[in-house]
Amino acid sequence: MSDLLTRRLALLGEPVHLPLLTQTLHGIEREGLRVDTRGHLAQTPHPAALGSALTHAQITTDYSEALLEFITGTANDPADTLQELETIHRFTSSQLGDELLWSPSMPGPLPDEADIPIARYGSSHVGQLKYVYRKGLAVRYGKTMQCIAGIHYNFSLPEALWPLLKAVEGDSRSDQDYQSARYIGLIRNFRRYSWLLMYLFGASPALDASFLRGRSHQLQQLDADTLYLPWATSLRMSDLGYQSNAQASLTPCYNDLSSYTESLRTAVSTPYPAYEAIGTKQNGEWLQLNTNVLQIENEYYSNIRPKRVARSGERPLQALLARGIQYVEVRCLDINPFLALGIDLTEARFLDTFLLYCALQDSPLLADGECQRCTSNFLKTVKEGRRPQLHLQRGEEQVPLTRWAAELLDALEPVARLLDQAHGEPVHQAALQAQRAKVDNVELTPSAQVLASLRERGESYTAFALRQSREHARYFRAHPLEASEQQQFEALARRSLDEQAQLERENDNDFDAYVAAYQASLLNLAV
């Protein structure tokens, strides 16, 4: 353990400061495909009973009309966050009829590309903007890979923690700049160590053979309908997922907030030849918002993002530039198909420990090729993380993944102890111990359990996922909401539909002018 980490833990462990560690905030976004009784992508519109995907705060859609996204608020205790996520699931399950929420991250059998429905958000300008953006994703990357689902874990430390550390360490930066720099440091450490999350929580070692659409690949055949890699942890996070030549040059290594925001601002304002060849319109119909490397900031695909809650009409980069980093969004988590919510409290408490460690541990700049080594270690783990004697690159040496994982878990121990001291119960140490068991016994990892289930039952990937989806649906429908909660969700749905209708009545100029103003809102910013 570094001297810096030791000092910071000691400071936060003082009785007057310990309560700060109970004030972290958590939020979860869980994606999930709607499928029919055969496990095929639902071709039905977003259910009106769920409200407006444009304006509902908790239930929306991501890329496809069939790709639901559930969004919790923030809570100090991740148990409360998961409880909120469960209520959203229970309400949604009550409104899906015969349809199911798909249990894993990778989709089952998909229709032809042309028949994968892009999410619709109505005729308001903001609704049209969201639709055209998704049309742009389709022409840039294809629709298939955007039917992949995941879990995003949002995490922030209490605002009062940063001035405390800043004062003790004699840092002369403003509070905002110090806080942003420390979150960027967290992200650098996350880049260094996030391969561990893929080993511990990766849950997509196999997929339906139709997903690859005839593309060349190096996967093996498990059965007539299933492809896999024997040691993979997360094919979702491998190069089978998002592939983008345009984004290949976009590799911000998070050495400071300004270089990160500048790289994204440049990407949303720099034309890319292949996208210029497509153009923005065809026969007067919009194809993409622009022909730049990124249409908008959120198109940049990354495992973790620095975030700031944006104000009405404000773009994500504008919020970051104006007020600095407020929280981080972890984006590399697979949905665990064995869990009804896709994530549980043990995983959440381990993530809290891991992220606090990343925030408090010394975080030197990524230099001398370390950025590429981080990427290489991550990709090696998602493709072969369970391979016996797999080695990763740590500095100048090759070390066994399991040895490095055990050492990292040892380093997390004092952080887990401190969190437990603050909360008054040993729950973070228990979560840490559950991960040690996976390092000691690879068969306990979710990816190994998925493959074991396929083999033991002689199931295809799709049959396995459909069975799990039905099981989760039965659970939610067997535990309906209280009448008052049900009525509250129904009221939220109606209100969101009214809000969408109001937005549609407020269109005050043509859509082309609206898009032009949207583009200019960022391009005119000084970074």
From TrEMBL:
Enzyme Commission code: 6.3.2.2
Superkingdom of the organism of origin: Bacteria
Gene Ontology MF term list: glutamate-cysteine ligase activity
Top EC class for this record: ligase
Entry keywords, A to Z: ATP-binding, Glutathione biosynthesis, Ligase, Nucleotide-binding
HAMAP family found in the cross-reference section: Glu_cys_ligase
Pfam families for the chain: Glu_cys_ligase
Coiled-coil region list: none
Stretches assigned to the Glutamate--cysteine ligase domain: 11-379
Record family assignment: Belongs to the glutamate--cysteine ligase type 1 family. Type 1 subfamily.
Protein name: Glutamate--cysteine ligase
Catalytic activity: L-cysteine + L-glutamate + ATP = gamma-L-glutamyl-L-cysteine + ADP + phosphate + H(+)
InterPro entries per UniProt: Gln_synth/guanido_kin_cat_dom (IPR014746), Glu_cys_ligase (IPR007370), Glut_cys_ligase (IPR006334)
Pathway involvement of the protein, from the record: Sulfur metabolism; glutathione biosynthesis; glutathione from L-cysteine and L-glutamate: step 1/2
Keyword Nucleotide-binding listed: yes
Organism, scientific name: Serpens gallinarum
